[in-house]
Specification:
The complex is a heterodimer of chains A (170) and B (337).
Chain A: H1 2-49, H2 53-63, H3 68-80, H4 85-96, H5 104-111, H6 122-169
Chain B: H1 6-9, H2 16-25, E1 30-36, E2 42-45, E3 49-52, E4 58-59, H3 70-80, H4 89-94, E5 96-98, E6 104-114, E7 117-130, H5 143-146, E8 147-148, E9 153-154, E10 157-161, H6 167-180, E11 192-196, E12 217-221, H7 225-235, E13 240-243, H8 251-259, E14 264-270, H9 274-279, H10 281-290, E15 294-299, E16 306-312, H11 316-329
Parallel strand pairs in B: 10-14, 10-15, 11-12, 11-13, 13-14
Antiparallel strand pairs in B: 1-2, 1-7, 2-3, 3-4, 5-6, 6-7, 8-9, 15-16
Helix pairs in contact in B: 7-8, 8-10
Classes of the chains: A mainly alpha (170), B alpha/beta (337).
Chain lengths: 170, 337
C-alpha cells in the first residue's frame, strides 16, 4: 500500500514539475506580447503626449498586466528619484526578471533600449522603440512556435520521468 | 530670510542642494540662482548679487565661491527634464523651461542649428533659475488708471520694462484684481482670460493655476498666444485678455483680432521706455495692432515693480508724435515713486 502511494506521489510530482517548466514557455510568449503592448503605449506617450519618462512609465504600468507592469512602474519610480533612465531601465529589467519569463536574448533586446531612453527628440525615440519592437516581434514569433511543442514535451517528459522512476524503484 | 521653493530644490544636484538651501536662508530677496560652468556659483538678490561659498555662505569675493562644474550643469538639466529630452524639445529650442509654480530656468550653452533655425541646445553650460514671486497688491497704484469705473471698462494696457523689473508679477496682480473686482472703485469683476504661453503668469501645473489669478479668470496654458487668443475669443468670451511678452511678428494679427472684438488687452513687452518699443519694428506692429490706450513703464529703481511712468497711447498719430519727441510728451506718474 505504501509503495502504491509513494509511486503516485512520485508520478504527480514529476508531472507537476513538467507542467511547471512547460508553462514557462507559454509565460515567456505572453510576457513578450505584454511588453510589446507596453512599449507601443510608451511610444504613444512619448511621441503624442510628450509625457516625461516617469509619467509615461507610470501610465503604461497601469495599463499592462502584471508582472510586466512592475518593470515599467519600477523604472518610472527610479527616474523620479533622480536615477538616469538608462540605469533605471536596466535595474527594473533585472528586478523584473524574477517574475517574468524572459530569456537572456529577450533581456538583451530590452536592455538595448536603455541607453537611448529619453536622450533625444521624439522622432529619434520613436526609431529606437520601433526597432526594439521589431526585434521583440521576431522573438515572440519564435517563442510562440516553440512553446507549444516544448511545453508538450516537458509535460509528457515529466510524466514519463516519473513513470520510469517508479518502475526503477519498484 | 528665504526658503527655496520645493520645485527649485528638487532640480538641484545632491551636493549643490545643501549649499544653496543654506545660502537662501542667509539672504533676503532671492530672485535668481546662476550656474555657469567653470565660474563661481552666484545668487541674485532684489538689490545686488552675491557669490556662494562651498559652505553655503553668501560672499562678495568670487575666489571664495564654489566653482560650478560642467557636471553640475548637466545633472541639473537631467533633473530638470526628468531624463526626457523629447518632452522639452520646444523649451530647449526657445532657451528656457518653466517649472510648476511659474519659476523659469533660462538655458545657455552651445546651440545646434539646422537650415538656419535653432534645433536645440547641445551642451548646456549655464542656467539661470529665476524664482517666481507672487506679490498681491503689486498693481494697486495702477488699477485706478486701467479701470474706467464710470463706463465699467478696462483700458488696454502695455506693461514695459527691462527683464527682471516685475512685468509678470504686475500682469498677474492686474489679472487678479480685474477678475475679483475692485470694491474701492465700485467696480465688479471682469471675465479675464490669460494666454499663458510660458506658464509664468498663472504658474499652472497640470492645467491648474498655482498662483491666484482671480475668480473669473480662465487660463490657456503653454500655448502660443497667436493660437490661444482666437481660441479664447471664440470659446471663453473674455472681457479682458492678458498675455505676456508680445513682440513676435505673428503676435500683431492675434492682438488685432482681440482689440477689434471689443476685448481689452493687458500685455507686456521687453523695453525700458515706450520709445524703445516703437523703435523695434515687430513690437511696434504688435502694439499698434493691440490698440493699447496706455503704456506703463516699470523699473527696479525702488525694487522690482517701480512704476516710472504711465503714458497715454491714444492714437497712432499721437504715437508717431511721441516717437519724435517722446521724452517731452510723456506723463510721469507717480512722480519720484
Amino acid at each position: 500500500m505504501t509503495t502504491l502511494w509513494g509511486a503516485i506521489a512520485v508520478l504527480i510530482s514529476t508531472t507537476a514539475l513538467g507542467y511547471l517548466v512547460g508553462d514557462t514557455f507559454h509565460k515567456r510568449a505572453r510576457n513578450l506580447r505584454t511588453i510589446q503592448t507596453g512599449l507601443q503605449m510608451l511610444l504613444t506617450q512619448i511621441t503624442y503626449s510628450r509625457l516625461p519618462l516617469p509619467f509615461a512609465f507610470e501610465a503604461v504600468s497601469t495599463a499592462v498586466d502584471s508582472p510586466v507592469s512592475e518593470v515599467f512602474r519600477n523604472a518610472g519610480l527610479m527616474i523620479r528619484r533622480g536615477i538616469a533612465p538608462r540605469e533605471a531601465w536596466k535595474t527594473a529589467l533585472c528586478d523584473g526578471l524574477r517574475n517574468c519569463c524572459f530569456d537572456s536574448g529577450d533581456l538583451e533586446v530590452l536592455r538595448s533600449l536603455g541607453p537611448a531612453l529619453g536622450v533625444s527628440d521624439s522622432a529619434d525615440q520613436e526609431k529606437h522603440i520601433l526597432l526594439v519592437l521589431e526585434r521583440l516581434k521576431v522573438r515572440e514569433r519564435g517563442a510562440s512556435a516553440s512553446c507549444r511543442e516544448l511545453s508538450r514535451l516537458w509535460r509528457f517528459g515529466g510524466f514519463a520521468c516519473g513513470f520510469v522512476i517508479v518502475l526503477v524503484l519498484i | 530670510m528665504a526658503r527655496l521653493p520645493g520645485n527649485i530644490t528638487k532640480i538641484l544636484p545632491d551636493h549643490l542642494r545643501p549649499i544653496l538651501l543654506s545660502a537662501a536662508e542667509r539672504v533676503r530677496g532671492l530672485t535668481e540662482i546662476r550656474l555657469r560652468a567653470g565660474r563661481p556659483l552666484m545668487i541674485v538678490l532684489l538689490r545686488g548679487d552675491r557669490f556662494v561659498s562651498p559652505l553655503g555662505d553668501p560672499v562678495s569675493d568670487p575666489h571664495k565661491a564654489y566653482i560650478v562644474t560642467p557636471d553640475d550643469c548637466r545633472s541639473t538639466v537631467e533633473l530638470l527634464n526628468m531624463g526626457s529630452v523629447y518632452a522639452f524639445q520646444e523649451e530647449f529650442r526657445k532657451g528656457y523651461i518653466t517649472l510648476p509654480g511659474g519659476h523659469r530656468v533660462g538655458l545657455a550653452g552651445e546651440i545646434t542649428c539646422e537650415n538656419g533655425s535653432i534645433r536645440g541646445l547641445k551642451h548646456v553650460t549655464g542656467l539661470n533659475l529665476r524664482l517666481a514671486r507672487e506679490v498681491k497688491g503689486a498693481a494697486d497704484k495702477l488699477i485706478p488708471h486701467i479701470v474706467d469705473a464710470d463706463s465699467h471698462t478696462v483700458r488696454s494696457t502695455l506693461v514695459i520694462s527691462s527683464p527682471g523689473c516685475g512685468k509678470t508679477t504686475m500682469l498677474r496682480d492686474i489679472a487678479r484684481q480685474l477678475s475679483d473686482g475692485v470694491p474701492d472703485l465700485g467696480v465688479s469683476g471682469f471675465r479675464v482670460a490669460i494666454a499663458d504661453e510660458r506658464s509664468e503668469i498663472a504658474g499652472s501645473f497640470e492645467g491648474v493655476p498655482q498662483n491666484e489669478v482671480g475668480a473669473r479668470t480662465d487660463v490657456l496654458d503653454r500655448i502660443p498666444k497667436t493660437r490661444a487668443i482666437p481660441m479664447m475669443l471664440r470659446g471663453l468670451s473674455p472681457e479682458v485678455l492678458v498675455t505676456d511678452e508680445i513682440g513676435d511678428p505673428e503676435d500683431a494679427a492675434a492682438l488685432f483680432d482681440a482689440c477689434n472684438s471689443g476685448v481689452s488687452v493687458i500685455a507686456s513687452a521687453h523695453a525700458s521706455t515706450v520709445g524703445e518699443v516703437f523703435n523695434r519694428r515687430t513690437t511696434c506692429e504688435a502694439v499698434r495692432a493691440g490698440g493699447f490706450q496706455i503704456a506703463v513703464e516699470l523699473s527696479r529703481r525702488c525694487g522690482p515693480g517701480t512704476i516710472e511712468a504711465i503714458v497715454p497711447l491714444d492714437s497712432y498719430a499721437e504715437i508717431r508724435r511721441k516717437q519724435r519727441g517722446f521724452r517731452d510728451a510723456r506723463v510721469i506718474y507717480p512722480a519720484g515713486s
